[in-house]
């Protein structure tokens, strides 16, 4: 195995999966490759892309970082936003409420992890149930109406074949984060934390503050996804974020972010999000029951973890020679 393959095994798997999916579609059902299908993929990818971007940042900074609460955060942020309108809040403030709610929920995760030293897996699993349960309790499990009319043309609008939320929110968010990671000291701090947290502390990097900030940013992006769900679906649904925690983690790892942090970037995450949504869309087009979609995502997550472990072992073996 070449040095390039050792460092890029996960991204190689991502490229191979894209190739296999494209070949299967071309051979079995080329009619799927239409502008309508592309628009549908991008529309469904909007929520997952925003959540996966935040998930990638949390994983990238190391410390066994993970946020399993993102799905519950999306649902609760949307419900808090729509119920705020029902309570008399000016409709123009809806996106602010969703973003603020998501950011605060993410900050709670960050404080519990960074200040109280509670294992991220346990913390975010607990807050996942908390946020999801609150969304269900506040609504009795029913959708909430009252989305302002001004939000629907944006949430359902198109620029050509590209949904407006994807064009105006997802793409700028990925570009901004890519620039921060590549060209700023904040980006270097994040990679340093993931590579070796103790060394990062010794050189003066405010590890705890950065970690809280990243969890807050992850929550903020989940809140943005909650607002998109309101604008797109036209109602606040307590299950808007269902399964996003599993899918976002899969997208982050499949996109090349190392499970223990310190390695990866957002371009691979972007491609992985599109692959996951395209795969699920293709399964529906082929008439495969939707209950299999979660199973396929789980298999991909296992596969990418095995690939990451294999890559690490190969690197350690070569380093010992």
From TrEMBL:
Localization in the cell: Cell inner membrane
Domain of life: Bacteria
Keyword Transcription regulation carried by entry: no
Keyword Transport part of the UniProt annotation: yes
Assigned keywords, A-Z: Cell inner membrane, Cell membrane, Membrane, Transmembrane, Transmembrane helix, Transport
Topology in membrane: Multi-pass membrane protein
Spans traversing the lipid bilayer: 45-63, 70-87, 93-114, 121-142, 162-191, 212-233, 253-279, 286-307
Record-linked CDD domains: TM_PBP1_transp_AraH_like (cd06579)
Family: Belongs to the binding-protein-dependent transport system permease family. AraH/RbsC subfamily.
Function, in words: Part of the ABC transporter complex LsrABCD involved in autoinducer 2 (AI-2) import. Probably responsible for the translocation of the substrate across the membrane.
UniProt cross-references to PANTHER family, sorted A to Z: ABC TRANSPORTER PERMEASE PROTEIN YPHD-RELATED-RELATED, AUTOINDUCER 2 IMPORT SYSTEM PERMEASE PROTEIN LSRC
Subunit note: The complex is composed of two ATP-binding proteins (LsrA), two transmembrane proteins (LsrC and LsrD) and a solute-binding protein (LsrB).
Annotated protein name in UniProt: Autoinducer 2 import system permease protein LsrC
Organism field: Rouxiella silvae
